[in-house]
Each structure stands twice: as structure tokens, then as C-alpha cells.
Amino acid sequence: MFLLNTLPAHNKPLIPVDAETLGESAAETVERFLEHRANHAETPLHSLPALAAALGVASIHVKDEGHRLGLGSFKALGGAYAVIRLLLEEAGEKLGRAVDVSELQSPEVRAVARTMTVACATDGNHGRSVAQGAELVGARAAIFVHPGVSDERVAAIARFGADMIRVDGTYDESVREAARIAEARGWTIVSDTSLPGYERIPGLVMQGYTALVREALRKMPEPPTHVFIQCGVGGIAAAVAGHLAIVLGDERPIFAVVDPARAACIFETARAGHPVTIAHGEPTIMAMLECYEPSLVAWRVLSRVADAFMTIDEEDAVSVMRQLADPAAGDPAIVAGESGGVGLAGLMKAASDPAIKAALRIDGQSRIFLVNTEGATDPGKYEEIVGRSPAAVAAKNAMGAEA
């Protein structure tokens, strides 16, 4: 399915709070905070010239978040950043002065952290980031997971010392249960989806994602003309689209949001013209994107700066995982999890459909920007789908680089 943005808000400026959240100054703050994170390093920006030639575009660049902060997902940038911000604000109130991120490990700030419990619901990656952030600052974390979260992903979160709480039902039901228990126990919800009256913390999570855009723009020879990016509740898409719109202004790229067909809450919201909750149906293999209710803040941004909305099918996600693992000659291999290559799947669908290609003005001069939002966060499932382990794919790529 494909839909151009014809909403009244399209191409209107972001409202001031969203422009401040996703602007250059905020992104600079995120990068400064990253300097205080263990294992911080800029993630790779891969060029795929052979695939670009095959699709008839000038270039394709993929920001590979499978290498981010040892967590294997772009979500490492958001949840932990929000936890750090919230701690520093709480410490500032308790100590009666402004507290800088450089004081994160001071005894006074650690003492405040020990009084805090942060909580969230997750499909896997966001919860891992919140748990890592809590461990970093010395706070407690309670992470709520639904039955679709694999045991391997649960274990990856638990290793940061988080209390794991199982919830029957969908991701959205786990979000509501986390909010209910957190309110009763005085915990702080650090969610990546916003609800009426709950916008600031999801905004901080989105703000964390702007770092990957700044890193990519520094490395690309020219800014992109097109962006295809996957969408769950909308946070990553809104962060990338909003930041690029602010930084590039009238030269901003054409932005296409890509949903799984089985969990297309942003697509259906765009079709309806207002936020809608869609029915829970057959699960999608794109587990990190299996969301049925959009984030209100994310939608507010996307309604203005997204140009098109589209969906891909299950087989598209599988196919692109395999293609990235075994690329055209000369292109690097990329380990992409079930949700990681969805933006590329959207590009490939658009490039092969003359009507969509024309609507998005894709041609031989187009410069495409994509984000591999996750690596093999469930290595067993990755090997089952791709036929090789993540390590084998990475090793092949390393051997190719040495040749």
C-alpha cells in the first residue's frame, strides 16, 4: 500500500516544542551526553554503489545502528539518554543546583539515582536501552514484556539488572500495564510512545535518536534527496524526518515512512487523517515494529514532514535481510535484524513500481539515506532466516575488506 501525504498539516513548520526537541542545539546536547557512555563510537555509514546502480539511483547510504553502544539497535540512543536526563533533573532538584552530565558518577548524584526506579514496556530494544541507562546511573529498572518478546531478547535486557515483568497481550497492552503499575508504585515511565498528557519523556527519547542523523550528515558527500525509514509507533521516523527538516530547510529530502503491513498504525493514521488504533491481527516477523497505536508526538511531526506512507509484506522483510547479508559484488555485507532493513525494502518496492517511483520523484540523480535500525538482536532467529550466523556474515564482510 502507498499513500502520499495530502493532509492540511503537510509542509507546515513544526510546532515550537517539537522544533526545540529535534533541533540542532538538542542534537549537540545528545552528542555531548554520548561522550559519557561506555562503548560509544560513531556507527558505520555504508555506501552500496552496486545496489544503487541496480535500482537506478545515484547513491544509497545506510547508517548501521547494529553497532550502537553494544546494544545492537538505534534504541540505545533514546531510552538511556532519557534516563540520564531525568536523573540529572531529579538530582538538580534534590541538590538545589544545576547538575551536569560530567557529574553522573559523583556520590551525590549516585545517591539520588538509588531512590529512582524507571520502567517501560518493550518489544526488546527500547527496554534494553532503558535498562542499560538505569545500570549506568545506578537506578532500578522494571521492564514489561509481552509474550511476543523472545527469551533471548528478555535475557539481553535482564543482564543489565532489570526486573522483568511478563504481561499477557500485545505490546500496547503492556504499555498500559506498565503505566498502571508505575503510577501505583511511584516509578517513572520512560516510554518511547506518547499519550495525551505524556509527551515530554517520549520527546527526550526521540531527541536521543537525532545523534545518528548528525553523524550520517557529517559522512555523506552530499545531503540525501530521499529517506525511507521504518516505523513502529513513529519515534525514529519522526526524529530523522524532523531533524532533517530543521537542518536542511527547503532542501530537505523526500521522506517516506515504511510500516509492516500487519502492524501499519502510522499508515492507517495517515489514511484516516488522525491518530487511530488498529486491530491486533497475525503477528509480524518485524517484531520491533509490531505496534498498533501511534505515538502522538511522532504523528504530530510526521503529519508535517513525511511526504508518503507505505507498507511492506513479511516476505519483503525476509528478502532484504538475506540481500544485505549477501550483497551485490563490491557492496559491504550488513547484518540487519527482522526490522532493520525495512526502509530498504520500502525503497526496493518503490523503485520497482513505476507509479510510486514517479510519485516520489526517484531517478538517476536520487541520493538515498536509510537506517539499519537493528542488527541481529535475536541471533538464533537471524540465523534461522538468513541461513548463516551474524558472526559468519560479519566475518565474510571483514575478509572482503581485507582482500
Automatic annotation (TrEMBL):
Molecular functions per Gene Ontology: diaminopropionate ammonia-lyase activity; pyridoxal phosphate binding
Domain Tryptophan synthase beta chain-like PALP positions: 40-358
Alphabetized UniProt keyword annotations: Lyase, Pyridoxal phosphate
Cofactor(s) it depends on: pyridoxal 5'-phosphate
Keyword Lyase included in the entry's annotation: yes
Stored CDD domains: Trp-synth-beta_II
Alphabetical list of PANTHER family matching this protein: DIAMINOPROPIONATE AMMONIA-LYASE, PTHR42937
NCBIfam families per the UniProt record, alphabetical: diampropi_NH3ly, PRK08206.1
Protein's recorded name: PLP-dependent lyase/thiolase
Organism: Sinorhizobium glycinis
